[in-house]
Amino acid sequence: MEALDGNAIAGALCEHYGTDMTTTVGRCAHCGTRAQIAELEVYSRAPGAVVRCRTCRNVVMVLVVIHGVTRVDSRGLELADD
Amino acid sequence: MSAGRRLDEPPASVLDAGSPNMASRSAQPTRLTWQLGRVMELVDETPRTKSIVLELPAWPGHRAGQHVDVRLTAPDGYQAQRSYSIASGPEDRELVLTVERLEDGEVSPYLVDELRPGDELELRGPVGGYFVWEGSNGGPLLLIAGGSGIVPFRSMLRHRFAAASAVAVRLLYSSRSLGDVIYRDELLRLAADAAVDVRFALTREWPEGWRGHRGRIDRQLLDDVAWPPPEQPLVFVCGPSAFVETAAGGLVQNGHEPGRIRTERFGPTGT
């Protein structure tokens, strides 16, 4: 299955965070790679979406829709504040 | 470890949403909501793609390159949602989406084959701030499209024209055949501008005497089309995942700076 990228979850993330997140830089909690959300790998052939780091391929976010509301688990990602 | 802010903590702008000073920023809604658009017109672009011209009473405007989420609801309540790039320019009166029919698709066959003028379509947007070009971003601008990956570039080219931007543009557009080239007439008209260079690459069928590229794009073609890396073109690549990997990877191998390359992948799935 081919991966998409973080552009594909722009709407769901905007619904959850209330602002566009695609240009937000996150740091992978597994390998430390920094990337904008739009650059992450997104697998969406599932009830929701699995987001992986493009470098180490570990899961950094999971999005699921429950009763019409998008829930986001982003424990694998930290905002890379300088 | 790190002092980084966790992503599930809402950014300050969201926490501010209820404060009085938000009124001055009201042009940008803080919450993304679903709205109904009325289909004004359907335009056949190629045998597999159609443009949907929409009237949206509450459209907040968009930036070139952004997309919308479209949601279909079945009579039993089942919902399916997909993202589609906006084909119209920010300065255009109506919102236009161009949709390619995927044979095993859940949403696109309905949009391409069943939708009729006067129907209502539920969508939300615009969304995405990464794959966006505005005149102030400058150039030179290198656009690389595979198949319906041309759609956001039509918005960017229309915006460039409407804004009377002098930024030089090179577009490399890969399609299966000449008949599969979306917006062909419009792109050829745009290419009359000396600062706009449009090149078609055809992967499967070529008309007799075709002098353009034959076959899939490769590093040599990318090198021929792109400005040399020292000129630091701003690059946008949009297409199926494998196409984007080839194009973006080839440009990096040719010496282009990864930070100047923005990518958007599409495929048969959505969220």
Q: How many separate domains make up the residues of chain B?
A: 2
> What would CATH call the architecture of the largest domain in chain B?
3-Layer(aba) Sandwich
Q: Label the overall shape of chain A.
A: globular
The CATH topology assignment of the largest domain in chain B is Rossmann fold
Most extensive chain contact?
A-B, 44 and 38 residues
Question: How many β-strands of chain A, per DSSP?
Answer: 8
Give the overall form of chain B: globular
Task: Give a topology summary.
The complex is a heterodimer of chains A (82) and B (271).
Chain A: E1 4-5, H1 10-17, E2 25-28, E3 34-36, E4 41-46, E5 48-52, E6 59-66, E7 69-73, E8 77-79
Antiparallel strand pairs in A: 1-4, 2-3, 2-8, 4-5, 5-6, 6-7
Chain B: H1 12-15, E1 35-46, E2 49-55, E3 67-73, E4 79-85, E5 95-100, H2 108-114, E6 120-127, E7 141-146, H3 151-162, E8 169-175, H4 184-190, E9 196-202, E10 213-214, H5 219-225, E11 234-240, H6 241-253, E12 261-266
Parallel strand pairs in B: 7-8, 7-11, 8-9, 9-10, 11-12
Antiparallel strand pairs in B: 1-2, 1-6, 2-5, 3-4, 3-6
